[in-house]
Amino acid sequence: MCVFARNKSEGRSRGQRRLVIWTFVFMFLGVFVLPLGSYLYTDLVSAQAAADKQGNPRANYWRAVRDGVSGYTAVQGPETNVLIQNGGQNWRQARNGPVANIMPWVLAVTVGALLFIFFYRGQVKLEKQPSGKTVARYNAGERILHWYTAILFIILAITGLSLLFGRAVLIPVLGYSGFSAWANFSILLHNYLGPFFIIGAALMIIIWIKDNIPTSVDWEWFRQGVGGLLAKDKHPPAERFNGGEKIFVFWIGMVLLGITVSVTGLYLIGWIGSGMRETMQLSNVIHAVTGVLWTCIVIGHIYLGLSTQGALEGMWKGAVSEEWARQHHDLWFKGAKKS
Hints:
Elements: H1 2-33, H2 47-54, H3 59-66, H4 87-121, E1 134-136, H5 140-169, H6 171-208, H7 216-223, H8 225-228, H9 243-268, H10 277-307, H11 311-317, E2 319-321, H12 322-328, H13 330-338
Antiparallel strand pairs: 1-2
């Protein structure tokens, strides 16, 4: 009987390990495979590209215009009489330079660190086998809101990353016409779904803010090897959400980065703000950087949910085993048992 239980436990462990690996594989394949669905055309030999190679005989004129030489235009508005705003070139250099070159490394370092932790620490297993007794952790409304927001986040992350890194990564695969089709679709999808995602993220902040107020217990969670993640035999006390979930996922991710991404996104689609190009260019850069940083946090959140035995059940089924609750969120478990 003990041998059967041990074999069953080892089978679950191997299955959980495969689930973690394949989840990350599918996440990153999705960034590259989904754009292939938009490749509806063959590569075109553009007449404009040929013209660009020949050079522009009026280049000096446009350089002067870009330097801010005043002219006349019939357009009425905050940028009247400005033929070309020179900030556009500065924005392009920032976006296609530091942002496009550094942020991929931020993503790569995040994934590399998680892979290191996975092979060093392995699956975070339960110390005791589940007895079958469970305790409610998330109600139906919380779970629906979580998956609604999570699905939208994944779609926005894929389309956003495609637009940000597509020139370097997707054009060699899709060609110019194929990437153009995917980019146009990504922009529409990103802009249309963005406001719906903001609603979900705002509701998550409102609903869970009361459970994410930092306390002295959270400092102990960090002090003891990041909640036992690095120190294998330590399991510090935790409330409904531990210190890492509070600080990184909620306050840095949902509140700081989430609000920044949302405000800059609404500005870019013209729902708020004056529409000044200079401000929109700055918003675009901030939106890209904070979006990538938030994606890194979410990747870590997904990893911990999959690599911690029994954690996913809470958000999938609404209840967790008493053994899991006692091991990872003992203070919350005591309160839940009393209520």
